[in-house]
Description:
Strand order of the largest sheet: 2-3-4-5-6-7-8-9-10-11-12-13
Distance between the termini: 14 Å
Number of helices: 3
Structural class: mainly beta
Radius of gyration: 19 Å
Strand content: over 45%
Amino acid sequence: MYRFFLGAAIAATATPAFAADAPVVLDQELAQPHISGYGELYLGGLYFSVPGDHETGTGAGGAVRVNFPIDARWNIQTDAVVDSLWVQGTNIYSFGGAVHAYWRDPGSYALGGFATLNGYGGDEGLSDANLYSFTVGPEAQAYFGNVTLYGQIYYGQLRASGESEHFDNWGGRGVVRFFAQDNLRFDGELGYSRLSADGGHLDTFTGALQATYRFSGTPWSVFGRYQWDHLTVSGASGSANIHKYVAGLRASFGSDTLLSEDRNGATMDTYRPNFAVPLF
């Protein structure tokens, strides 16, 4: 069954106590609207398991996210991402990006929408398939002192260039960001995604934990992330679990702490599954 899940896939991934509701105090210059963002790279491993079988792999990737303030409240954020996976000598990868447009009050909430576009390729003819996917949907954040709540829902499609047939994709995710210190952030994430066509579907349930630490007075951060994806296919017996462990390095600009980056900088992101978008 492991070979069913992997062989029918292409890479789509590339990864203190509650404070009172007081406004975040920032450096006056950094509090003014300005361009900011970050770039990050990661390297890690994956573990695939199905009843009676398992396999390991290696994953690597990165992202660049830049926020452009239109005025004191309106923002445009652009993302570029790439992810690659190696299993049994086979490489599969994805590349693409996202655009977010949103209204933000740094002391209260952010509300807007986003769109993504990704392409896929790899060994064994995957690059010749000219596959791509897109999603669109609303997103929102709420700020409570040192806690950020973040939610998204989306709809999209997986298609091959020049083909009329497609797979529908919809889902949602919720994230809690907890700042134990201004430069120490913990993330918890839950998500669900369904890919379907011709009455069949694949469901993915996701859970993730991440810790990020930024070195005070520098643009550099380090992070570690664990993500679990649970896959079930309609009409198939059994299921698959994919575990991904990564460590990474981030370089930020236009912000002085992780908390100020979250409330005034490139604060949006998108769902990036562990494994791949499957094909049937």
